[in-house]
Every structure is written in structure tokens, then in C-alpha cells.
Amino acid sequence: MRKQVVGKWPADVTERLDLVFADAPFPAEGKSDVEGIFDPPYYEWFQFDKNFTEYRNFDKCLNYIEELMIKEGPFDGLMGFSQGSILSGALPGLQEQGLALTRVPKIKYLIIIGGAKFQSPTVAEKAYANKIKCPSVHFLGDTDFLKTHGEKLIESCVDPFIIRHPKGHTVPRLDEKSLEIMLRFLDKIEKETALEHSSTDVDEKELCM
């Protein structure tokens, strides 16, 4: 995702973010959903069935992320694409329930690109038990196969920022309108993070999944 974000997004955005790009822990099984978007090799955060209701290695994935955040952090926010965005959207709720990321600071904001909600009731009932209160910005592609599911994730968030684009399941460039929305989102999280840290000199750090 580094090439798609750093290469496509203007410095007005990327220079305000301290991005740490993480590889998922497991080699992808079968054809990857991001084939043709990113260069191989492909990795995945966990495995799932065709209905996206049964998961394998999910607990190992959560432990992996927490260890990564301890080692490379602290992190203020999460940015995810595809499977990484589904995971990112669930982590604030799981953290709130004490089921994930219990040894790291509270997630303060989300950047969701091509996201969706978990379909498994065993995960969804915990991850979305309450509205996602931290600031979030959601990228929705008009032809993204996850668009409908992305809309449902947005419904679970409090006052989300929404950036719509004409592309599919990809990391889009920022046109004039989407850049304006993104800059307003950054203004919001910088203000809130600065207040929480009691300082205006805050270096937000984001884990990209």
C-alpha cells in the first residue's frame, strides 16, 4: 500500500501522517483480492470461508497486531485497505470490549479504504456492540464489490467523513473534492489528538494494514 498512498496522495496529506506500513502475517491462500492492485507476494491477516463468516487464525492475527504496535508504536490511528480495512474498522470495538489491543493505547481514529463489516455474528456482536466513536474517514468506490458492505460499516460510525470515488476496489487518487474532505478530517484528528496530549506539537503515527 506504500506505493499507492505515498505515490498517489499529495504531500498536503502524507506529510501530516507518520505512516508505518505493516505486512500481514500469513501468505495468501489462493487468488488474492488485491492481485493487480498491489505487486506480489500477497499476504493476508487471517483466513476466511467464501461467505466471510468463518475465520481461521483470527486470534493469532490480533496478537500479531498488538505485538507490532508495542514494538513499532505508539500509534494514534489505523489505516487499512481491503481485508486490512475490515480489521481496522473492528478493532476499536474489540478494544473497547477488552478483547483486543489491551496493552496499547486507545485507537483514536480510522482511515478506511474499501472497507466492510465482519459478517460472523461471533465477531460482529462484539466489534459493533456500540457505535464507533473515534473519528473515521471512509473511501467508497462506485464499482467496488465491497461498496454495500462499506456503507454498512459507515452506519456503525459516529459522524464519519465519506470520500466517494468512481473507481473500484483500489486506493484512489485524491481529487479536489476528496482532498478537501481529507484535509478537514486531518484537521479534526490533529485538534483532538493535540487536546488529548495537551500539546499542539503532536506527531500522529498510523499503522497501515
UniProtKB/TrEMBL annotation:
Residues 8-177 form the Serine hydrolase domain. It comes from the Eukaryota. Gene3D superfamilies: alpha/beta hydrolase. InterPro entries: AB_hydrolase_fold (IPR029058), FSH-like_dom (IPR005645). This is Serine hydrolase domain-containing protein. It comes from Oryza meyeriana var. granulata. The lineage of its organism: Eukaryota, Viridiplantae, Streptophyta, Embryophyta, Tracheophyta.
